[in-house]
Structure formats: structure tokens, C-alpha cells
Amino acid sequence: MRIIACISVIVLSAFSVPPSGSVERATAPISDGETITVRLSSFAFDPEHLRLKAGVPLRLRLVNESDGGHDFSAPAFLAASSFPPGSSPPLNGKVPVGSNQTVEIAVVPRTPGIYRVECTHFLHSLFGMHGTVEVMP
């Protein structure tokens, strides 16, 4: 039983170390109503930090570059935002993005603050698939 526990810890530790060269992640600039692309890959968002202006409409283009499904879960950010007429906020603040798929959502950030974003698929956030959305006044 101890051997299985030790092997489990070693395997989990190996997956929690970021690949070399990916420790530094870019920050998306303050937007002026443009489209911001967020790449979803195996256990990472790129950029992992978005900086947006309150009241400025934008499109989030979520591009899943992996062979497995992911989601962009930011319930507090999406609840504090508005959406164009005829569209509604994503259910439970999650935007599912299938493998090798792209999803776009139009959003207007409203409330300044720093909001957590993560992938809620099993262990993805633990392995590093999380970040923040900062809404500037």
C-alpha cells in the first residue's frame, strides 16, 4: 500500500512541474474593444493573466489546442460582466471548449477587480490550468 502511495505522489509531482520555457506567461494588454485570444492547452492558459478595461466591449476567443476538452471557468468575472442583447451569460460561469475547437464570447467587463479563471476538468487546475482576469476602472 505504501508503494502505491509513493508512486502516486511521484506521478502527481512530475505532472505539476511546468515544462521548461513555460514558466513566464504573457499578460494580455488592456483592451480597446478588440478580440483577445486565450489558448487552452494541456494544463495551461496563454496568456494566464488578462487585463481588461471596465465598460469596454470585447470578444474572448478561446482556442483549445489540445486533443482533450477544457473549459474557461470564471463565474465571478462573468457574473460581474454584461453581454450583448440576444446573448446570455455562460451557464454556471463556464465556457466549454471541445478538443481542437474555438469558441468566442462577447462580453463587457463591468466591475473592477481581480477574478480567478480555471479549467474545472479533473485535476487540470491543480496541474496549472488557472489564471486571472483583472478588470481595470
What does this entry look like structurally?
It is built from two helices and eleven strands; from the N terminus they run αββββββαβββββ. It is globular and about 35 Å long. The relative contact order is 0.22. The longest helix is centred in the first third of the chain and has 15 residues, at 2-16. The chain has a single domain, classed as Immunoglobulin-like (Sandwich), CATH 2.60.40. Helices cover 15% and strands 40% of the residues. It has a five-stranded mixed beta sheet.
Q: Can you give keywords for this protein?
A:
2 helices; Immunoglobulin-like; mainly beta; 4-stranded mixed beta sheet; 40% strand; single chain; 5-stranded mixed beta sheet; disordered N terminus; globular; 137 residues
Helix percent band: 10-25%
Radius of gyration: 16 Å
Q: Structural class of the helices, strands and pairings?
A: mainly beta
Give the second-level CATH assignment, the architecture. Sandwich
The geometry reads as globular
CATH topology: Immunoglobulin-like
Order of helices and strands: HEEEEEEHEEEEE
Give me the number of helical elements. Answer: 2
Q: Roughly what fraction of the amino acids lie in strands?
A: 35-45%
Question: TL;DR of this structure?
Answer:
The protein has helices at residues 2-16, 75-79; strands spanning 27-28, 35-41, 44-46, 49-53, 58-64, 70-73, 81-82, 94-97, 102-109, 113-118, 130-136. By secondary structure, the chain is mainly β. The protein has one domain (27-136): Cupredoxins -  blue copper proteins (Immunoglobulin-like, Sandwich), CATH 2.60.40.420.
